[in-house]
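ok so i was messing around last nite and threw this chain in just to see what happens. nothing serious, just curious
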Amino acid sequence: FRTLRAHTPFFEVTGSGGFNNFTLQGGGDLDRMSQELKKLFSLPVHAKGQVALSAATSKREEGGFRLESRISIQDFALMRGKRTLFPAHDFLLTSKATAAASLPGAGVLHALQVDAASWLGNISLLASDLERNREQQQNNCTLKGALDLERLSTLVHGFRDEASGPVVKGRLQFEGAGEY
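result:
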């Protein structure tokens, strides 16, 4: 397809272009989405915030293509009943991927980078050399981040029926490497 348009009472997205040059933009209202979905489903949580998203593909000089995407939520909040799980804050998720020229088959994805920043902290995933020879031993995936443990405790307690419990305080920083 060359053009795309989707519209709901709470979300709109448009896109155009071909496989090697497709662009996508969209946005929506999470509060309105939660209200509409609760008409169909029994949802225990209610989200608020304004979503903006974009994505684009491009052809790479060395072959294959590249995909970049970005999702941001301004004033993102999440509630369970009257309990606040996530207070209003800005949330950002970005990703970049490179892939082979054709989608079917093994070894399609060459590299992937995903970064998230929220009220809880930051997390990054980087995977590279995914098309390499499987017999080579190397750490081609890393995961690192930092989380606020008190905020994480608050989130966990919010999903439980008990209003309180032990609270862990401090900052968790982690970094790991492995092989895919």
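not much to say yet. DSSP finds two helices and ten strands in the chain.
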